[in-house]
Structures are given as C-alpha cells and as structure tokens.
Design brief:
The structure holds 2 protein chains of 2 kinds.
Chain A lengths: L1 E5 L3 H11 L6 E5 L2 H10 L4 E5 L7 H10 L7 E6 L4 H9 L4 E4 L4 H11 L1
Parallel strand pairs in A: 1-2, 1-3, 3-4, 4-5
Helix pairs in contact in A: 1-5, 2-3
Chain B lengths: L1 H5 L8 H4 L3 H66 L8 H15 L7 E4 L4 E4 L13 H7 L7 E2 L3 E2 L6 E10 L5 E10 H10 L7 E6 L4 E5 L10 E8 L4 E8 H4 L1 H62 L3 E6 L5 E3 L1 H7 L4 H11 L9 E7 L13 E10 L2 E10 H39 L6 H31 L7 E5 H18 L3 E4 L9 E5 H18 L5 E8 L3 E8 L33 H11 L3 E7 L9 E9 L1 H8 L1
Parallel strand pairs in B: 17-19
Antiparallel strand pairs in B: 1-2, 1-6, 3-5, 4-5, 5-6, 7-8, 7-10, 9-10, 11-12, 11-15, 13-14, 14-15, 16-18, 19-20, 20-22, 21-22
The chains are: A alpha/beta, B alpha+beta.
Chain lengths: 119, 665
C-alpha cells in the first residue's frame, strides 16, 4: 500500500517514518511542502494520502483539491490531519472530498493501525 | 472635634468669645440709667423744693397783706370814735357809759376786727370796758399802753400777745391814742386781736391744711398759730417769713418737707416704677435678642458646617458619578432632570447632558412604557470611534417614581469589554497550546517509539528515566488537549458524531481501555454486567462517551486506596440509562462539593490526599455530558467530613435511544 504523508514539521515526518518503517505492508513517502506533494502526485500513484491541513501555501486543502481533481486518485483514500476539532471544520473538509479527518496529535505507533482500518 | 479634624480649613466661630462683653455692656447701661434717673430725680427735687418755697412765700405775702389791710381798715373805722373822743371833755368820766357807752358798743359790733374795747385814761386806768370787771384796773405798765400813749393821732400799736385768764386763748392787744385837738393825750383805746380774727383772715386765703402758720409778735411770742406744730429743725421743713415792721408782727409759714414734697415723691416713685418697668423690658428684650442672635449665630455656624459637608459629599458623589467606568444617565419624564457621566457621554457621543439624554431616550422605549423596577435593554450604539467600534453596550434601566415623576436611572455597561478580555485570554492560551502541542507530540511520539523499538537496548536505569519522560510528556499533552477541548466546547466547535451505542459495549470498551491504568495503580476495575434482555442503545458520540467514562474511571482509580476496587456499571431505567463509577476513595469534602466541576479550581483535597491532574477533567466531563443532553451528579462520603466508610459514586444519565425515538415520533 502506497501512502503519501505530508507535514511541514520535519520531526513529525521523521517520527512517522520511524514508526511506519517496520510495517512491511505500508510503503510511505514523506513530503514537507505542498509544492513537493503536487509534483509527486503528477508522477506517482498513492492508495492513501495523509495531508496536514495547516501548512504554508499551498496547504493541505490545495493538495486535496488537486488530488480530487485527478482521475487516478478516484479510488484513493484521503485523510486530512488537523488540530481543529470543530464539527463545522470537519464538515467542510468532508465536503471538499476528504474521506476521513484525523485529529492531531496522534500517536505515531497507532498510525499504522489507523491506516489499515481506513484503507 | 470631628468636624474640625475632617475640615481643617474650617474656622468655627464660637458664640462665647464674641459675647463676653455683653454682660459688661448691660451693666454699664444699667449704671448709666440709674445715674441718669438719680440726677433727674435730684433736679426735680430741687425744683420742687424751690417751687414750694416760692409758694410759701407767696402765702406769707398774701397773709401779711390781708393782715395789714384789715388792720388799716379797722384803724380808719376807729377814726370816727377817736375823733369823738378828741372833742369830748373828760369831765364826764363818771358817766362814760351814759354818754359813750352806745357808741363804744356799736363800734364793737360794727367793726369786725374789734371784738372788745377798753377805754383807758391817760394814767392807765380802765374807765370803760366791754368786759365789766376790767373797769378800774390800772394798765399803765402794759407796753401797748405805753407805746400807744406816745403815738400821734391816727396811729396804732400792736402789743405782745397775752393769754386770756378767762378763756385761756391768746389775745394780741392793739391800741390807739386818744389825742385832743391841741395835741394833748387824753387816753388810749385798746382792743385785742383774737385768734378767731387771725383764723378768719387765714380762712380767706385758702390755705393748705398741711401748712403750719404762725404770727409772731416783735418779742418772738406767738400771737397766732394754725396747722400742725411746725418742726423746729429747718432741715425737715420749708419755711417762709414776712415781717410787718410797722405792726411789729412776723408772719411765718412752714411746711414739713415730707408733705411739701409729697407730690414730688409720688411723682418720682411713679416715674421710677414706669422707668424701671420700661428699662427692665428693654433690658430683658436685649438679653433675649442677644440669646437669639447667639443661637442664630450658632445655627448659622452649624448650617455652614452642614453646607460644607453637603458640598463635600456632593463633590465626592460628582467625582464618583463622573468617573465611574459604567455609563450613567439619569433623566425624568418632565425634562427637569438630565444628568450623564463621562463614560455615558463617550458611549453616546454626546457633548453634554442634554444630548446624552436625548440619544439614550431614542434608543430606549418611551419611559411610560417601561415597567417599574429593573429592566435590561440591549442597546446598539452607532460607531463613534475606532476604539468603540466593536463594543456591545448593555443598558440596565431602573425606573422609579418619585413625587409622581418617573425617573429613569440608566447604567450603560460595556459588555464586550469582559468578553474581549476572556477571548484574548483564551486565544492566548490556544495559540500557546498550538505551539506547545507540535513539539509535545513529537516528544511523546519519539519516547513511545524509543520504548517500543529499542526496549531491549535501553539499560534498565535509563529505561526508568525514559518512562518518566514519556509519562510526563503524555501528561502535558493531555493538559494541552484538555484546554483545547474546553475551548472548542466554549466556542460550540466540538464535533459530536452520534451513533447508536449499546450500553454493554460502551461499558466493556471502557473496562478494556482503563484496566491497564487500574493495574498500574493496583486498583481492580470491575464492571457489573447487564442482563442481556435489557441492554438498550444510546444515541451518542462513541469517542466522547468513552472520554467521559475514562475521565471518571481514571479519577476513581487515582483516588482509590491500593488493592481496592472501582466499580463501573449502568442502571437501565424506564426512560434513561444511568452509568455509575464508584470508588472507595477519600470522598469529596462537603465544603468542596460546589466547586468540584470548576476549571483549574482550588484543590479539593488536602495536599497529602490530592492526586495530580490537569484540574480540567471534571469540567470537560460535565461539558461533554451536557453537550450530549445528559446529566452528571455524584454521591460522596468524605473522610474529611468524619465518615469512616468513605467513597464517591459519579452518575451520568443519558436518554435511551429507543425511548428518544418514541418521543420524537
């Protein structure tokens, strides 16, 4: 399962990488900016996208829009990561095409389990 | 004095100090009055005395004139008789009575001044007398005879008074010489002036009975005296004299001072009484008005103090009124009362009271329509300045009716001030938390990974430290998350995803999730199972329900004595389900019951009992329960209140899903 993880916090990316490294069934790619992500989306296909919402532009929402506009990600699961817990914000994300909303902070060790459950 | 202390600048005039001279002035006036009265009385006395003296002199003059004229008239009348005797040859001595008797008797009858007659020859022998026994007596030794015998024709002499042997009355002799044509003295006709004669003269003069009248002969003997016995001492009487030198008589009239000045004394006493009464009246009114003025001055002082007090109070009130943070506007129906303070004028953008009142009245319903008492109005103020731009002003109006006039007291409160402050505080906390959360997440995650992946490589000593770091990172993370959750709740931003949840599932999930925490605290978590037949659904957010139960269970475990049990379960009732979490902990002391759900409240327990935590757990729990339409309450028996078998049971009640649907259907 190919997974794209986008977060501007290098530490978080590193931690997740460290946590998921041992999971053989998950092949994760990590990007630190929206530009990188959008570039990568053009070339590669991912089964699951974990996108941080709050980032310097282009942010998670921009990437979400790009992904949803792309025919090859139609079947992919897109999870938006956000610290905002309001129901309105969540509703908004779902309207834009997110399949799930993952509340930050989450435990890196539990992420693999989460990925399997939503994929 | 209190006043002087309070108003050091105030000089209170003392009534006593400026009235000290008053009795002295009164005394002086009294002395002057008495002296004046005395001088007046003395002058009057002198005048009265002089007047009386003059009067007496006048009486003496009158009396002596009438005496003189009376005697002259008598003398003239006697002239005829004397003339007859001048021609008469004295040979007929033996038959005097036959020749002259009738003439002599007629003289006594006709001349009133003459009441007796003696016809004495030149040798002093009485040859005829109206009083028969005197005939033949020789009177040549009498001075009046000797005086008269030497007198010219027509003259007469008045002799020394003698006391009549027969009647005991005084008689003053009067004698005329009988001279012949050739100048030879033939004898003397003598008579006497009796007291009745003088009395008659006196009665013609209208004399005062108080006067003492004396007629003295030349030798000082009394010829006549009338009235009271004249006092001898000249100091006690007033005397007037008139001498009749040709007659050898002296008229003396005197009056005792007491009776002479009787009218003076009467007048003076009457005057003194009237004057004294007047003076006393004036004096008393002066003293009285003096007292009044002192009293008035005192009350003026008092009212001055009162005025200063009132003014001070007014100034204090004005200062408070003007500078209080809330806007105040007071106005009445009649338009007589218009008052506003600085804050109100700023809120209303008014330059003066009148504009402020007009503007607030435009914003409020008419005064007549307002109910009496307190009323709250949300007021939308037009934006007048940048700093007021986002203010919400609340107007509290109290309507009072005083003397049939409705008065409105408006308090303008800036509601947004507090809201803004709370918001600022919260947004600060939120931003801090967001900033804290990212590194904390990394820290906590890194530590978790370290323990998970390198468990065997970490030396036992280091592992202890790693665990400690991990535990504290988690604790910090929980706190940060709790705060963010509460903030979401406060801003109505908490997402709630309701789904049907079976009660038994919720209980078993809570048991599994929290059993580990229990084990760590050596507390056994026990769930009472539900009968399968009665296991209803609830329509709640699964995650939030677990959060509620986890909070209550972790609290129960934290406070349970080691080795004890924490009992969880649910009572299924007709309309609702009541979860419970029961522990054998120290209980909630009675004094803390009311603040157990407060955020960051004071510790509930004493230091040795209090367990660590964020201080937000129960606050969040209550919010989560109420946001899902549930209720939370608890029963507690606290050691601190003296209960041996202590413990706490929390109850959380939710509507049953099946019943809920029934109701909505």
């Amino acid at each position: 399962m190919k997974v794209l993880f986008m977060d501007d916090e290098a530490d978080i990316r590193e931690l997740i990488e460290f946590a998921i490294m041992v999971e053989d069934d998950i092949d994760a790619t990590f990007v630190g900016s929206g530009i990188e992500a959008i570039d990568l989306l053009k070339e590669e296909h991912f089964d699951l996208l974990l996108l941080d919402v709050m980032m310097p532009p282009p942010d998670g929402l921009e990437v979400l829009r790009v992904a949803r506009a792309d025919e090859k990600f139609r079947a992919s699961t897109i999870v938006m990561c956000t610290a905002r817990t309001s129901s309105e914000a969540e509703e908004e994300l779902r309207k834009l095409g997110a399949d799930h909303v993952l509340h930050k902070p989450f435990k890196p060790l539990k992420l693999a389990e989460f990925i399997r459950s939503v994929a | 004095m209190l006043i002087a202390e309070y108003f050091p600048g105030l000089e209170v005039r003392r009534g006593r100090s400026f009235s000290a001279g008053f009795p002295f002035v009164m005394l002086c006036i009294t002395i002057i009055f008495l002296a004046g009265a005395f001088v007046l009385a003395l002058a009057d006395y002198r005048r009265s005395e002089a007047l009386m003296q003059q009067q007496l002199r006048h009486f003496a003059e009158l009396l002596s004139q009438s005496l003189e004229s009376s005697l002259s008239v008598a003398s003239v009348k006697m002239g005829g008789l004397l003339d007859d005797f001048s021609y008469m040859p004295f040979e007929f001595r033996g038959n005097i009575d036959g020749i002259y008797g009738k003439q002599l008797r007629d003289t006594v009858i006709n001349i009133e001044q003459i009441d007796s007659l003696l016809f004495i020859d030149d040798e002093g022998t009485v040859i005829w007398a109206t009083t028969e026994p005197l005939v033949g007596i020789n009177l040549s030794d009498r001075s009046y005879f000797q005086d008269a015998i030497g007198l010219p024709r027509g003259a007469f002499t008045v002799g020394k008074p003698i006391v009549s042997r027969g009647t005991g009355r005084r008689l003053t002799p009067i004698a005329w010489p009988i001279t012949g044509w050739s100048g030879d003295v033939r004898g003397v006709i003598a008579s006497s002036l009796g007291e009745n004669y003088f009395q008659e003269l006196l009665s013609l003069q209208d004399f005062d009975g108080d006067m003492s009248v004396r007629i003295l002969a030349a030798d000082g003997s009394t010829a006549f005296s009338a009235g009271p016995e004249a006092p001898n001492s000249p100091s006690s009487s007033i005397t007037a004299r008139r001498s009749l030198d040709n007659l050898g008589l002296d008229v003396q009239i005197s009056l005792s001072r007491s009776s002479a000045l009787q009218s003076y004394w009467q007048r003076t006493i009457a005057f003194a009484i009237v004057a004294a009464v007047l003076f006393l009246t004036v004096l008393i009114s002066a003293v009285w008005s003096r007292m009044q003025s002192v009293r008035l001055a005192a009350s003026l002082d008092r009212s001055e103090i009162d005025r200063i007090k009132i003014e001070t109070a007014k100034r204090e009130f004005d200062a408070i009124f003007e500078n209080v943070g809330d806007g105040l506007v007071v106005f009445d129906d009649a338009g007589a009362l218009r008052r506003s303070n600085r804050a109100a004028r700023r809120y209303l953008g008014a330059e003066d009271d009148e504009i402020a009142v007009t503007r607030i009245r435009d914003l409020l319903p008419p005064l007549n329509d307002m109910p009496p008492g307190n009323e709250l109005y949300k007021v939308k103020l037009p934006v007048r300045s940048l700093e007021d731009a986002h203010k919400t002003i609340q107007c509290r109006v109290m309507k009072l009716t005083i003397y049939e006039t409705a008065i409105a007291y408006c308090v303008l409160e800036d509601m947004s001030a507090e809201e803004r402050l709370a918001e600022t505080r919260m947004s600060f906390i939120t931003s801090v938390n967001h900033e804290l959360r990212t590194p904390l997440t990394s820290l906590s995650g890194a530590l978790d990974l370290l323990r998970d992946r390198f468990d065997y490589e970490i030396p036992p000593g280091a592992k202890k430290l790693v665990n400690m770091a991990s535990r504290n990172a988690d604790r910090l993370l929980v706190l940060v998350n709790d705060i963010l959750t509460l903030q979401a709740i406060d801003h109505q931003q908490l997402s709630i995803h309701r789904e049907p949840i079976r009660v038994s599932d919720a209980l078993s999930e809570a048991l599994t999730t929290n059993a580990g925490y229990g084990l760590a605290h050596d507390v056994h978590l026990v769930a009472t199972s539900l009968p399968e037949s009665d296991d209803p659904f609830l329509f709640l957010d699964r995650v939030r329900l677990q959060q509620i139960l986890a909070n209550l269970i972790s609290n129960a475990i934290k406070y349970s004595p080691s080795g004890s049990e924490v009992l969880i379960g649910a009572h299924v009732r007709a309309d609702d389900v009541r979860f419970f979490v029961s522990d054998k902990g120290p209980g909630v002391p009675a004094k803390a019951i009311h603040r157990i759900f407060e955020r960051f409240g004071e510790p509930i327990h004493s230091r040795d009992v209090q367990a660590g935590g964020t201080g937000l757990g129960l606050a969040i729990t209550r919010e989560l329960v109420s946001r899902q339409g549930g209720k939370i309450c608890f029963d507690s028996f606290a050691k601190a209140d003296g209960v041996q078998d202590s413990g706490t049971t929390f109850f959380v009640t939710f509507q049953r899903h099946d019943k809920m649907e029934l109701k909505t259907a």
